[in-house]
Task: structure prediction
Amino acid sequence: MAERVQPEWWGRLPIIVRAIITGVAVGLVAANVWPLLVLNLGTVVAAAIEIAFLAAYIWWASGGGPPRPWKAGRAESFRASRLTATQWFWGLVAAFSFAVTIHAAIVVLFRLTPFPAAAFHAGYDFSFIPTVPMRWLAVIVSAASAGICEETGFRGYMQRPIEKRHGALLAILISSTLFTLVHLTKSWSMIGMVPIVFGAGLLLGTLAYASGSLVFCMVGHTLMDIGLFAFWWTQIAGTFSQRPISFGGPDRAFYIECAILAAALFLTLLSIRRLWRAQRASNAS
Result:
């Protein structure tokens, strides 16, 4: 007789409820290991432990280790699949252009309204890390931790089961909504940031669905967060100092920033479309 690995009441819950609970648990619990490490250990030691943890986390979440009855389900939720060269090309293009899109959107937002620097910097003080290279290491590991764990939770374990039962549209909307709600707890979550965070969720959810993989979502999310940590939150890479256009009207820089946003978004959507076609061609062969 097969060993029971989940209580009967769990199986009675609607798939959406189970997916939300599982996605939040798998994504956010793991993502909070790194803050505990870096605050209690030296940066180098904490980074080494976190990298090992993330490797083990990916291995387990993609179907490795116990419990064996959940192995296939974990691989399915992780979207474990073989990728063609075409998928790799367009997936990496999508990941990079996605990160550019989000940062361009933030720049345009703060050309339209004053940048609330104090709110963005609150809670992101890396001054306890003594050197700039170590701060950059902390930024990169922080970004990778969030990118890997949140994508596994939201675009994998939450979105994938809902996709299978109710279709991609509802699944992407639900994962994006929960992704946004979780980030509303941050000090920088002003009203203007809500559509940007929700839009990021929509793009990442669509990218996961179109590519059949979490890899490109993880890469794009990590690149986005490197910029967020280094520039917008900790100021290691500089400080945003441009004035809103209300002080002097739209200038040349503003038009360039809007053009970059439009071009990056277009390239992201184009890449996602190409990935969708490549996945269908791969499945048909």
Residues 13-284 form one domain.
